[in-house]
Amino acid sequence: MSDNAPAVPHAPAPYDAVVLAGGAARRLGGVDKPGVRVGGRALLDRVLTACAGARTTVVVAGPRPVARPVLWAREEPPGAGPVAALEAGLRLTTAEQAVVLSADLPFLEPATLHRLLAALRASGADGALLTDADGRDQPLVAAYRTDALRRALAALAAGGDGLTGLPLRRLTGALCLTRVPDPLASFDCDTWDDIADARARIREHGHVLDEWISAVKDELGIDLDVDTGVLLDLARDAAHGVARPAAPLTTFLVGYAAAQGEGGPEAVAEAARKAAALALRWEEENEAKDGGGNTRGGGPSTPDAG
Fold this sequence. Notes:
Keywords: Cytoplasm, GTP-binding, Magnesium, Metal-binding, Molybdenum cofactor biosynthesis, Nucleotide-binding, Transferase. This protein is α/β, with parallel strands linked by helices.
């Protein structure tokens, strides 16, 4: 390689994900908490979407339909607690780093996991975890070095009583940890009030559109980032310059045209540009007047003969 060649940025280190989804949810009356819907999506699916960048994702729970392929594991005996569940999930991982997540995090985003993994690498610690609005550690929204986790789990198991029923603090207390404050991403749904709060929050004006787009993409199996501002501008132009029903029909046709072409964000943007230009031309024609009156249609009126 030439000395003057540009430096190639390091690719992010691969990571695995372990999602604990087998709790009893006693504070919710024993309901199937991972299946509770917030913003039209099951809590577990929301978490699985956030960690879609993982090389391997292990869900510790009984198998169920989910938004993307995962591996399933189960602690022995079932219901033995979070430490035993984590050990069961970790057996199926191979990456040097793993994110460990609960299944009830409605506001978790891929960017949060990237921050945790970056903090883990930069600190040299055994783990990087989020802290909530009160500054409390959240060990189930964290990134860990898998070898450190395995050593700590083996030490606990060697204590004679096994891992059943152990609280997570017995595990994390043996690790060197760094902390990343994030009150929103660490918000979990332990009670029905928490779920009601989460459902209300995603419908706030500043969040509802992004939430809806994410939900639709998940439902349709679409992995495509598009400029929503471009599409909204197009819908506005079509509604104003043509007719209100033209807005949804036009955006549908733009999506169809993009799918027929390259299908990427650039194809969507190009189709939207063409349709927006057409809508503006349509509006100009509607508003066109000749020098002497109110003729529409984009051309001058024809004077009456005689």
